[in-house]
Amino acid sequence: MNTYMSSMHISMEYSFSKMMNLWSFNSFKGNLKSSLSPITEYFLVACFLSNIHYCLY
Fold first, then answer.
1. 31 with 37: CB under 8 angstroms?
2. Does the pTM of the predicted model rise above 0.90?
3. What is the pLDDT of residues 22-34, one digit of tens each?
């Protein structure tokens, strides 16, 4: 079970880092203040745009 979960963890880390590299605004901590900016919406838009990017390439 641990071996299976670690492989899933590695693939999720890879996709998360790829998304942060494509949309660097999400990784800039100065812009992401929890009560002042819609962090969840930024993340969901980045996920959506990353999926479009992966489908095109």
1. yes
2. no
3. 887 776 666 666 7
